[in-house]
Amino acid sequence: MCLPGDTGSGPNSRNASTERGKEREPQSDTSDSETTDVRKINQQPSHREGRHDPNRYRLHFEKESREEVERRKKRAREKILEPAAEADLEIDINDIYPPEKGLDFPRRPSWHYEMTREQLLRKEEKLFGEFLETLHSKNPPGSLSHFEHNLETWRQLWRVLEMSDVVLLIVDIRHPVLQFPAALYHYVTNELHKQVILVLNKVDLCPAALVLAWKHYLSSLFPHLHCVCFTSHPGQPYSTAYSLGCLFSSVCISSVDLSSWEQKIQRDAANDCQEGELLEEGESVLVEHYSDVAMEMVNSSQELYKDGVLTLGCIGFPNVGKSSVLNSLVGKKVVSVSRTPGHTKYFQTYYLTPTVKLCDCPGLVFPSRVDKQLQILAGIYPIAQLQEPYSSVGYLYERMPFHAILRLKHPNGEGEDGEAKWTAWDICEAWAERRGYKTAKAARNDVYRAANSLLRLAVDGRICLCLRPPGYTPQRG
């Protein structure tokens, strides 16, 4: 039996309290935590020449207190893990985005061409500050998800929504309601009067019955929503060629000539979309880049299908597989794929055909009421930034016991009844022993690295936890 591979590593946090943005050395599990309220990650080396700031689109997250981290560590050592009820896997979108809690997203303020660039930026900054103040006033500390606090990233969303004719909202089928902000859907359909297509990605990781259940659940709640199943994994029922055909049928527009796109889809299907042979020799992809001024002064009243071109705006949380979907749509690896949330920093457009172009928005997290453990398992919060990953391992184990799959041996042996009683710490220690993870100085089992490794296996789908829509368990029975 082949065990899942490991890509775990120790923490690699950044010092948010230093104005110069200098890197910190990797922390050990017992090192002091930061004390600032907002944590800035993905620090890039600065360039002294020119005006470009490589850290303009850094991810900003709320910072946890050291006391909370230590409390959860202690609990991970002491709490005996018990199997959760199947109903605990069911999740309602209204629990994640309760309307009464003001879980909206910041909207771009009105503007006119007589405004200067500085005036527009100040107005946007004021609006964003008021949005954060209102949001935190309606939700107690610690109840909100670690949503994006960087205004620059939200500005990217505004530009993409303004430019797009049809919005592709990409979610992970294992937990789609975590990544489906209802406020965004209502804004696009009711205020912008544009179409939203929900791309249920990674359907190869879920049972077919569960895929259909999620599709039915979301379609019943949002009647104007078009759902398309997708996977870039070859040989699956919803593989690339089939999914592209479904997507094409969902966005057929009479005012735009989409025959070239249809021909491309048929050509890709005929070639089975083999990796490395996606484009014919000599075929290329035109990529548009925008200056800062152009991005800031995009006309929000832009006419639909301008110049006979259909613009598809691609939006999604980190780690939903958005880049993989874009690569499949374009037919060439033009978007690099990474498991690091926030890998894509600024929006770019790619001409799929002369009449169809894709506009890629950076992955960003909307404010919600998602538990911290679910945020981590869904890839919303960067695993590399965790100071206390053990409780998330315990959360996963209670909903999907995996000790037999990974052939873990309890550090303390079996209990009196012949069955071992596991804590989250035991699970991590057993995996460290299984994989040979040792600390550098004392050569003890490196439980931190083991915990990170297990969480990455979950995010990658090699330990696959799938949430369910309300009522799914009785219907399945």
Automatic annotation (TrEMBL):
GO terms for molecular function: GTP binding; GTPase activity. InterPro entries: G_CP_dom (IPR030378), GNL1-like (IPR043358), GTP-bd (IPR006073), P-loop_NTPase (IPR027417). Possible regulatory or functional link with the histocompatibility cluster. Signal peptide: none annotated. This is Guanine nucleotide-binding protein-like 1. PANTHER family: GUANINE NUCLEOTIDE-BINDING PROTEIN-LIKE 1, LARGE SUBUNIT GTPASE 1 HOMOLOG-RELATED. It comes from Scleropages formosus (Asian bonytongue). Residues 1-75 are annotated as: Disordered. Residues 17-27, 36-71 have a biased composition (Basic and acidic residues). Keywords: GTP-binding, Nucleotide-binding, Phosphoprotein. The gene is GNL1. Residues 154-367 form the CP-type G domain.
